[in-house]
Write a structure and sequence with these properties.
The chain is of the alpha/beta class and about 140 residues long. The protein contains six helices and five strands; from the N terminus they run αββαβαβαβαα. A five-stranded mixed β-sheet has the order 2-1-3-4-5.
Length: about 140
Amino acid sequence: MAEDLERAIKILDETGCTCVACKGESTYRSIDRGVTPLIVWLDSNTDMMGYSVADKVVGKGAALLYCLLGVRRVYGRVMSVAAMKVLRSNGIEATWGALAESIMNRKKTGNCPIEAATASVDDPAEALEVIRETLKALN
């Protein structure tokens, strides 16, 4: 429901959360950066079917993970064009505060490593493996 997305955006705007998911009375929040909250929810088999999500930054990698999670709507304060296309092509409503050609890395010196790693990936399950490998290499 639209109210779920409005509530998720409000929580995102009013707290230090990086990612908020709402469905009815249920709310999941995270202060972790990047795709970490999505990996945690996937690894813990959190049922996110039909949830509406507000996220600070949504790149293609995050969009592919949201497909695996089964969410219904995603709002990104900043969303890449590639993320928007992935979400919409998978039947997930995508809205944003700012639409960017790509997501920059945290130092603003180039593309986000997750965005770059998933540039040629369209399958969500494959994306999860690629993202895990990328995160391992970064740490």
